[in-house]
Task: structure prediction
Amino acid sequence: RKEVEQDPGPFNVPEGATVAFNCTYSNSASQSFFWYRQDCRKEPKLLMSVYSSGNEDGRFTAQLNRASQYISLLIRDSKLSDSATYLCVVMRTRGSTLGRLYFGRGTQLTVWP
Amino acid sequence: DVKVTQSSRYLVKRTGEKVFLECVQDMDHENMFWYRQDPGLGLRLIYFSYDVKMKEKGDIPEGYSVSREKKERFSLILESASTNQTSMYLCASSLTGASTNEKLFFGSGTQLSVL
Result:
């Protein structure tokens, strides 16, 4: 079973729409959670960390449910510039003291005018 | 801003060639990583290093080796390139790895084609 599972999409939404992405992780020992964003033909970049209490950064809201091993990302008032692939990422230590990141395959979002 | 530089954006090699992919970071980060990214498979960890001359296997190390002789430089080596190693290779670095909110900084990637 994959460490991190995401719906690959694609999600095609109009500007101004609200869109939600979901992600599940298989290992309950996972310690930290993130959303990364990857633009076409570019490298991934950290969008936001995800905290147990849920957190918000402008139009973006991330939620974590440890009991269900479920992570979500909500984007409100979508902009054209939000078009990208969103990667769900979990971290846990495995053997060494260095935390290792496990990436989902990504969910593709296209926002149209 | 942290800069992670990969030596080539595009590379074309022949089957059986020895291939070196170079990565340099300029922020004195302790940890460096090599991933490959393939459509439908996402990012997969090949090798990582948490100190000079230290390395650990990731999830798909077969057919690869690495070298970290200096803190800022982490090289990925394909001893004998094969067509199934055609992929986008991404190098990344992070500061300590001990923090639970560790941020990875990625290079812009090397698209390797093995013919």
